[in-house]
Amino acid sequence: MTSPDRADFTDPVGAIARTATSCSNWGRWGADDVLGTLNFLDEAKRREGAALVRRGASFSLSQRFDTHGPQRGWRRRSNPVHTMLDTGADFALGNHPFPHGLGGADDVISMPLQCSTQWDGLGHIFDHGKAWNGRDAARVVTSEGDLVTGIEHMAPHVAGRGVLLDVGRVIGDDGELPDGFAITEEHLTATAVAHGVRAGRGDIVLVRTGQLARTRRDGWGDYAGGPAPGLSFTTADWLHGTEMAALATDTWGFEVRPNEFEHAFQPLHQIAIPHIGLLIGEMWDLDALADDCAADGVYEFWLTAAPLPITGAVGSPVNPVAVK
Amino acid sequence: MTSPDRADFTDPVGAIARTATSCSNWGRWGADDVLGTLNFLDEAKRREGAALVRRGASFSLSQRFDTHGPQRGWRRRSNPVHTMLDTGADFALGNHPFPHGLGGADDVISMPLQCSTQWDGLGHIFDHGKAWNGRDAARVVTSEGDLVTGIEHMAPHVAGRGVLLDVGRVIGDDGELPDGFAITEEHLTATAVAHGVRAGRGDIVLVRTGQLARTRRDGWGDYAGGPAPGLSFTTADWLHGTEMAALATDTWGFEVRPNEFEHAFQPLHQIAIPHIGLLIGEMWDLDALADDCAADGVYEFWLTAAPLPITGAVGSPVNPVAVK
Amino acid sequence: MTSPDRADFTDPVGAIARTATSCSNWGRWGADDVLGTLNFLDEAKRREGAALVRRGASFSLSQRFDTHGPQRGWRRRSNPVHTMLDTGADFALGNHPFPHGLGGADDVISMPLQCSTQWDGLGHIFDHGKAWNGRDAARVVTSEGDLVTGIEHMAPHVAGRGVLLDVGRVIGDDGELPDGFAITEEHLTATAVAHGVRAGRGDIVLVRTGQLARTRRDGWGDYAGGPAPGLSFTTADWLHGTEMAALATDTWGFEVRPNEFEHAFQPLHQIAIPHIGLLIGEMWDLDALADDCAADGVYEFWLTAAPLPITGAVGSPVNPVAVK
Amino acid sequence: MTSPDRADFTDPVGAIARTATSCSNWGRWGADDVLGTLNFLDEAKRREGAALVRRGASFSLSQRFDTHGPQRGWRRRSNPVHTMLDTGADFALGNHPFPHGLGGADDVISMPLQCSTQWDGLGHIFDHGKAWNGRDAARVVTSEGDLVTGIEHMAPHVAGRGVLLDVGRVIGDDGELPDGFAITEEHLTATAVAHGVRAGRGDIVLVRTGQLARTRRDGWGDYAGGPAPGLSFTTADWLHGTEMAALATDTWGFEVRPNEFEHAFQPLHQIAIPHIGLLIGEMWDLDALADDCAADGVYEFWLTAAPLPITGAVGSPVNPVAVK
Predict the structure, then answer these.
(1) pLDDT in tens, D158-203
(2) pLDDT tens digits, residue range B101-119?
(3) Which CATH superfamily is domain C6-74+112-323 in?
(4) Which residues make Cβ contacts (< 8 Å) with residue C135, sequence separation at least 6?
(5) How many other β-carbons are positioned within 10 Å of the β-carbon of residue D222?
(6) Is A41 exposed, middle or buried (0-12, 13-18, 19+ CB in 10 A)?
(7) Do C142 and A85 touch (CB under 8 A)?
(8) Residue ranges per domain, chain D?
(9) D interface with A, Cβ–Cβ below 8 Å
(10) What ipTM, to 2 d.p.?
(11) Do C85 and B83 touch (CB under 8 A)?
């Protein structure tokens, strides 16, 4: 349960400190841990997840990566720039060095790792200079990258049971929560009950707000950093207590925006990543999966969402694939 | 079966033309097809694949993405360059704008899509100006990217039954085939028999040569484009006839290098991608999975290898995850 | 003089064809030419230019290169993304490998070559598939770059006499021409007369509209591609007849926007680059220089604006330096 | 003069400390200085330099920027990757959206700012955590870039009198100094005497070793970071005492490699940049200019070498142009 003093939104520093203490997983998996809550995703959970493949239908939960994405330049985050090294046009015209009619095309991309559908790695957020497991952020994430908890360590792990909590559909109007709507533990529990599903230890939990459907209809607007529905700061205990392996949403920043505290910025990140060690996904496209779940009433599935093992990265683009 | 005239390695143009005719899948899935042999990977195959998750053990089949990769600059292919937009060092020193002790790190990557563990998309290779399904390559892959068969179309599909054919272990010495070794259908069949496994319609077939293990020990050398074990041109019929969904190897270029024809360059690509419509994976790291398969004698598994849906891309980095 | 039929803005194809004929420099400097009007900038002109250094005062005519630039993503043009490979923060904390107290910082940039203050190379624009000097654009600019007239060929040449025509100050209100204002030869001549300066053979001519000053005050708005003051299509004869070496403006696209023809896009580019062989500069910051010229009444100076010799580039960022 | 104890190459820390004290320019131009020795390059010097334009002949001193450059990946330094956004091939085939026969090509580059011919900015090197003018490096160069002495501040300044000291030609064999050759003040003075030129206050001094000519003939080898001729650590007093504005060489790292101290790395950088505030150029191509100087016996000229004003950059690619 969320204690009342956490709901006092006048003192972010105090609330963060108290919540960090109650939610801390520091040391839980030893001093050398680099996986955080992915430790909850064990082989038994994978067996349970694989058993959920009943029809064999698969769904990509990724937005497309291109210059039409949501980024506006905040903190130098741009949309991906994809360019060609060779083209079919050139090969058709003979502008190439290859024999026997061979032609080909290659390409290049330049992108922030947080530009679109992504995982936040454990080195993405710090609390008062402390990274996951209590480490000194100044030694963990340098200009060479995350030297300790780089996302490459997660490469084989993110495959297991996925659970969709379509809060937009259960609590919102026409499947969408309004911007600024703070999703509480009560909303999440009500949604799970409505779906007849349970999100627990080792699960990868997907929370749909409906905001992405809205931007698909109305344009990006301030999707990147602006007002959005999202998790209330008060859900920290729930994030911690369920012992979930990971959580992802269809919004830019996973927690409600504007943040509930005045003069605050993403306070729930400050708990979830460095203290809980939670793997957080953002900007996932949950709409096609959500439609299918609404149609068949089944909100659990096999989910693989493998980050690219970019050495030292604090995030990774990802194409999560759910199979029902 | 491979007909004798295909094995006449003096006439690449003629051999390619004959093989293209016998192996063509053009029109098989309609004029608008953008998936090629991924069409073989259906829901039934996914159910079959998911049933292979017995222990719940998961394996990443990806090399790490960093500047220590194999690229040497050929056709402007470089290794990935990953840089930080923010660091823990800066946050520890107070060099940041955030309140209440929040700190964070972001990062950026610039890389060729074919730089490391990857899928070749259907727009990656052409035969005499023709792309997959007989389309005019000049209209399909322009400097804007692959306008028709971009890899984004494959986003939800690449999850199914994986089969490992560890030819290095069965045919080679100490688990490795020498550079220049041409793997024939006979070697592949013998390997499957030795493993007690069958690779067929809709499967994602992984062929391990052992070359990556060698480079791990001896250094990259000419891994990128140089001599390598790999599939013989004569395996085209096997690639086509098995109706596999995809094939990946642990080498730079999937086929044997030097190529079997004189004055040739990657002739099997010229059949496999534009004519068969085969999804090809390269530079996969199959070693940990292969060790496990050798230990438990089980060479089939659930495999998810979801490309990033980069709009118009002719390839994608990928972190394939196998679960047994 | 501009003939009346050129001023008939209902037929862009016809007007472009007629103007191309009258303004063509094809073959003027031989079939192998890669310099276009830079051929007019000879050693005598450099001696004349150097003699204009009277005070020794120098001015940069470049905008700053950063994410706060004008680009909005049109045709994948983004603002520059500059990231650090090493930082002082890391060195102060000891996060580095160097001995005896040495520290250092390195950096990386990713940018379109047309993102900010720039030269358009001769391969930047084509007319009906013809590049500068009548060459086949399909063979000149491939996905490997400009194989013939890459901007590297201009590396030693762009240093000579500069002339500022501050049309904004002479013709406009408060130093600025309104968006959509078409600058004609008459305006240019009147400005030169008002300044007491003459722009002729071999000169680098700078035309200030004042639009950049406006965006500095009011924000970028649609600076990139939107309405702007600029040269009228009817100035083609003047561009050709003066035998200038190069021309640069303080706007995104050098010619008036919206373009004077209906359903047209940058028709003067289609004459100036492929037919005249004119080196065109865009997004230059002429304001500090213009203030100085207004103060001392001297509108001519030594100007060096050396493109980076990027092999095969069709443009280059540049920091032009004027010295009076 | 170089004191004997500086030539004691067993104690880099001590030698650096002593030399830093004797060569320091901290505070010389006030606490807010962002220009270092560029302060010596004043208007009088520019007048003097411009008077050296006698023939009007111009020379680019830049290597070409492309994937064939010298970088090998050390500290994530790669060669530039230049790709096309549009091509002539596509326009010739009609693969574009433009009216009336207009076609065009755009391009993109991704490169380290220290990849080829470049200036090192004042934020490039620190001594025991101190940047130029005694500032705390941890506050000056963060992951956002150089917040104080970014190279954009130098944008209008680097135009003046250039002097070539062709030490390779005067001291070396066949115009080249061998790798590992330490150029002392005596060599520099003898070269100036042989040339009949004087390098002094406010000059931009170019020191040619001949190494680039050698790599042009023999291949890059270890040009990037390997053995090279270059300035001896003992030239620190000369760099300081001449009051030159800037110095550039044709080598990767300006000082002799291997460095003269054991277990040292670029100790002269540690004096020249943070203590002297010297602008240092590296990888310049001085060969064509040197040939001309040898032919006409004139080793002084007008030189413009304007860095791109990349906000917060600690270096910049540059195309220096000399005019005689």
Answers:
(1) 999 999 999 999 999 999 999 999 999 999 999 999 999 999 999 9
(2) 999 999 999 999 999 999 9
(3) Putative cyclase (3.50.30.50)
(4) C148, C149
(5) 14
(6) buried
(7) no
(8) 6-74+112-323, 78-110
(9) 81, 83-85, 87, 89-90, 92-93, 95, 108, 110, 143
(10) 0.97
(11) yes
